[in-house]
Amino acid sequence: MDRVKTGISGLDEMLNGGIPAGRHVALYGGPGSGKTSFCFEYLYQGAKMGENGLYISLEETADDIVENMKNTFPLLSETNKLISEGKLEIIKPDKLDLEDVANLLEDRITSNGIKRAVVDSATMIRMSFKTEVEYRQTLFEFLSLLRNLDVTTLTTVEATTAKKEEMKYDIEHFVMDGIINLYNIDREDRRVRALEIFKMRGTDHSRELVPFKVTPSGIKVYVGEKVF
Ligand SMILES: Nc1ncnc2c1ncn2[C@@H]1O[C@H](COP(=O)(O)OP(=O)(O)OP(=O)(O)O)[C@@H](O)[C@H]1O
Ligand SMILES: [Mg+2]
C-alpha cells in the first residue's frame, strides 16, 4: 500500500508509515487543540518532499493563516519560498459550498499537481446545511468525488468539547476513512495536549493516547510516552 508520510515527528510511526494514499482523514478537536497547526505542517512537510499542497481555509484568510503559522512555527522558515514556488497554496473560497471546494481541488490538481489537501473546517460547511441528513448526503457525495482524485486530505472538524470522556460521535466519524482526535486534557493546574488515532481504514495503527507539543520547529508527537 502506498502511504503518504505526514512528516510530523512521531505521527508516521503511529500510522505504521503514514496515511494510506488517497484517503480522507478527519482531524477532530476542540478550540485551540492544534488542528490548523497539524494541517499546515502536513502540507509544509509534503511541499518540502516534493508533493504540492493546497490549504482550503473556510474561516481564516490566507494571510492570517500564513501570519499565525509563521509565529507558531518560526523554524519552518521556508513558508514564503514554498508559497512563491507554488508548492504550498492557501485559498479562502468565497462560498461555503462543498461542490465549489471539490471543483477548486480538481482544478488545482490538474493545473498544479496537488497531492495533499486540507479543508479547514468541515464544521463551517456543516453549519450551512439546514438538516444533518442533507449534510451527511452532501459530505458522502463530496468524499466519493474525492476518491476519483489522486489526493490525500486532512479535514478539520470542530469538537464541542475538549474532554475525552465527553466526545460524541458525529457524522464525520462514520463517513471519513480515518479519524485523529486531538485533546486538550484538563489537569489541576494546566492543560496537556494528547492525540490518538481513533480509526484508519485499511491499516494497523497505534491505539495509544500519546502526548504531543506544538514547538517552534513543528509538532512533536511523543510516541511511547504516557500522558501525565
Ligand atoms: N510557538 C508556539 N509554541 C507553543 N504553542 C503554540 C505556539 N503557537 C501557538 N501555540 C498554541 O497552539 C494553539 C493554536 O493551535 P491551532 O490554531 O493550530 O488550533 P486550532 O485547533 O486550529 O484552533 P481553532 O479551534 O481556533 O481553529 C494556540 O492556542 C497555542 O496554545
Ligand atoms: Mg484552526
Structural class, from secondary structure content? alpha/beta
Q: Using the coordinates above, name the CATH class.
A: Alpha Beta
End-to-end distance, in Å? 35 Å
Order of helices and strands: EHEEHEHHEHEHHEHEEEE
Largest sheet: 9 strands, mixed
Shape: globular
Strand content: 25-35%
Low-confidence stretches: none
In spatial order, strands of the major sheet run: 5-4-6-7-3-8-9-10-11
Question: Can you put this structure into words, describing what you see?
Answer:
This protein has 228 residues and is of the alpha/beta class. It has one domain: P-loop containing nucleotide triphosphate hydrolases (Rossmann fold), CATH 3.40.50. The chain has 8 helices and 11 strands. It has helices at residues 11-14, 35-48, 62-72, 79-84, 98-112, 122-126, 132-147, 171-175, and strands at 3-4, 19-20, 24-29, 53-57, 88-91, 116-120, 152-158, 178-187, 190-200, 210-215, 218-221. It has a 9-stranded mixed sheet, with helices on both faces. Strands 1-2 form a two-stranded antiparallel sheet. Strand 10 (210-215) and strand 11 (218-221) form a beta hairpin. The longest helix is centred in the middle third of the chain and has 16 residues, at 132-147. The model has no long low-confidence stretch (mean pLDDT 94). It binds adenosine-5'-triphosphate and magnesium ion (MG). Magnesium ion binds at residues 35-36, 120. Residues 35-36, 120 line the site of magnesium ion.
Provide a short characterization of the protein structure.
The protein is 33% helix and 27% strand.
